[in-house]
Amino acid sequence: MASSVSTTSFPAEAVPQAPEDPLFGLMRAYRADDSPDKVDLGIGAYRDDNAKPWVLPVVKKADEILRNDPNLNHEYLPIAGLASFTNKAGELLLGPSSPAFEEKRVSSTQTISGTGAVHLGALFLAKFYKVNGASRTVYLSNPTWANHNQIFTNVGLSITTYPYFDKKTKGLDIEGMKRALADAPERSIILLHACAHNPTGVDPTEEQWREIADVMAAKKHFPFFDCAYQGFASGDLDRDADAIRYFVEKGFELLIAQSFAKNFGLYGERAGCFHYVAPPSPQAAEITTRVASQLAILQRSEISNPPIYGARIASTVLNDKALFEEWKENLRTMSGRILTMRKALRTKLEELGTPGTWNHITDQIGMFSFTGLSETQVLRLREEFHVYMTKNGRISMAGLNTRNVEYFAKAVDKIVRETQ
Q1: Most buried one in 1, 40, 280, 346, CB count within 10 A?
Q2: Could you check whether the bond before residue 199 is cis, i.e. omega within 30 degrees of 0?
Q3: What is the radius of gyration, based on Cα positions, of the chain?
Q4: Residue 399 DSSP label
Q5: CA-CA distances (angstroms) from residue 285 to 88, 107, 109, 343, 418?
Q6: Are both 41 and 82 inside the same structural domain?
């Protein structure tokens, strides 16, 4: 009789206990808090003025159209996804009249939201970015979305950072950023946030984007745009895509990760796209075809076929003129509420005479704001006022509303006065 095996192939020294994801740990702690005053400023999802998730009215209409479609089925999508969705997603970013489409320089692949798009791009770079003289190090802004770090390192790419947030001005360190890009080895991979930078809420101006492009062109750097907030940042889809369109206009070869979680409220449906744009050349169409073929193989081995329902919702809206216009109005509603909360928070802090300057609250854009609060201050806010935010002082503006913004401002005022 064979003896039972009592030892594991995965001892602690081989598979150590991983730390809990900080953001999901914060969410868990918030849910466990039974204080009636608790405030959730960590969540990266839109909330209405009642602190509730908001299903966009246009999404409800699209959902109704789909559910009443007698031909609706749940068959597999092609590996590259729903073409009526990916085609319009590309047009949304580049503009429908972009020469890149006419010249067949764009390949679009449906992904598991923006995270899946970044991951697919990372896989592609890890396997194929091997041109002579190219640096395989990915340059990330300091700070950046925390998940960027592990997505790239998990596929074997090395990462480093370039200066981005200026702690003194609480704005963009444009000179530090340009200097780092100029000093980086030629053909380095540069990860750029297209708009509504996460976590700082600090975006380059139109002129600064052009300065960044000039430096990158001089060093032949490879841009990889992460676009998670188009239309959600300023309320204007075209304005939020300006940086990407300028880089394409300048002839860059580039990658784009695109999410529809925030701007459609399709968080759990995981609707996203990954786009490759070839540089202008007589061989552009052939290059794009080859790239698309390899992306399909990578996608096949990872998820086989992308999920269909969120893509159908977005496609229904993007391909219907009336629904598309209604969507833009819904975007203005969300971005407008965020802007209102920024103004309210700044006004209340200034009325209280809270030490420091608070103009950065309204200077920044998008869902998040880098408050400038220290980790010690953040922890005291949690312990004394049940305010939950990430340790680096980032808050989700969507967590503020007309009922809690004054409470939060007074809490910040007290803590800042006692710890300055």
Answers
A1: 40
A2: yes
A3: 23
A4: G
A5: 19, 10, 16, 48, 62
A6: no
Residue 149: Cβ-neighbour burial (10 angstroms; 0-12, 13-18, 19+): middle
In a domain, 173, yes or no: yes
Q: Do 49 and 164 sit in the same domain of this protein?
A: no
Please state the domain count of the chain.
2
Residues paired with residue 202 on neighbouring β-strands, in sequence order: none
For residue 50, give its domain range. Answer: 22-55+329-419
Q: How far apart are CA 103 and CA 97, in angstroms?
A: 11
What dihedral do alpha carbons 154, 145, 122, 191 form, nearest 10°? -140
User: In angstroms, how far is the first alpha carbon of the chain from the final one?
Assistant: 72
- The confidence score (pLDDT) of residue 3 equals 55
Query: Of how many residues is the chain composed?
Result: 420
| Strand-by-strand arrangement of the 189-193 sheet | 106-112, 271-277, 254-259, 222-227, 189-193, 138-142, 159-163
| Shared domain check, 179 and 135 | yes
- The DSSP annotation for 100-146 comes to HHHTT-EEEEEEEHHHHHHHHHHHHHHHH---TT---PEEEEES--H
Give yes or no: residues 290 and 186 share one domain. Answer: yes
Helix or strand holding residue 332 (H, E) = helix 321-352
- Taking alpha carbons only, the member of 328, 417, 345 closest to residue 380 is 417
Contact at 8 Å (CB) between 392 and 368?
A: no
Going by their DSSP bridges, the two strands 271-277 and 254-259 should be labelled as antiparallel
Same domain, 379 and 300: no
Tell me: do 408 and 389 sit in the same domain. yes
Residue 354 amino acid letter: T
Beta-carbon contacts of 76 under 8 Å, excluding residues fewer than 6 positions away, are 304, 305
**Within a domain: residue 33?**
yes
Q: What is the CATH number of the domain that holds 51?
A: 3.90.1150.10
**Catalytic residue positions?**
145, 226, 262
- 3-state secondary structure labels for all residues of 230-242: CCCCCCCHHHHCH
pLDDT tens, 192-246? 999 999 999 999 999 999 999 999 999 999 999 999 999 988 889 999 999 999 9
Residues 194 and 243 sit within 8 Å (Cβ to Cβ): yes
Q: Are residues 39 and 87 in the same domain?
A: no
Same domain, 246 and 394: no
Q: pTM, whole model, 2 decimals? A: 0.92
Q: Are 59 and 43 in contact (CB under 8 A)?
A: no
Is 420 a residue whose pLDDT tops 80?
A: no
